[in-house]
Amino acid sequence: MINEVLWIVFALINFTMVTIIYRIFGKQGLFVWIGMSTVVANIQVVKTIEMFGLTATLGNIIYGTAFLATDILNEKYGKQEAKRAVWLGFATLISMTVMMQISLYFTPAPNDVAQGAMKTLFEFLPRVAGGSLLAYIVSQYVDVLIYAKLKALLPDNKWLWLRNNGSTMISQLLDSFVFCFVAFFGEFPANVWFEIFITTYFIKFIVAALDTPFLYLAKQFPRRQ
Fold this sequence. Notes:
Blueprint: H1 2-44, E1 48-51, E2 54-57, H2 60-77, H3 79-104, H4 115-122, H5 126-153, H6 160-184, H7 190-210, H8 212-220
Antiparallel strand pairs: 1-2
Helix pairs in contact: 1-2, 1-3, 1-8, 2-3, 2-5, 2-7, 2-8, 3-4, 3-5, 5-6, 6-7, 6-8
């Protein structure tokens, strides 16, 4: 149970940090957080853990905070600002990927101790990298569009939970499908592929549910640029 308890505490810490960053730095803080979280999530995803009887990747939590950040932007600043944040995260992720790939081609010094670890973290298979990039831009864009649509249909604050959970849980389902399809379809038997897809989404579903109170908290903060 250690991993399960630590995972929940880790999720609460991540979402708390998003709200603190927003409280202190306003909209610009969320833009920075989205860029940072996309990079960190793609580093953490290399590590796998066992939790709830499932094998999961560690990056799902901080990746989920990017959806919370775009939902806050959508709620308080509108769809266009949320879209800008999504493209910022995408550009940041591509920039990091390009720079780290080039850095791996430098011949390390004889006493270097970092090259092996850097290759483990940043050397990628094209299908996995392509799946990650495509899943990010598709799911985040869909999240923004669904949230904006729900906000237009159900603008009252009592439906804030539905706007948040509806947009995030649907977009996370799409994110899991796109990534698993591009990265793993045909690499595993169909039943194994389906299990990977379901377990990936299950973890993201829990993360999406946990972020709801933090959106309510951020909603109460003064609107800052």
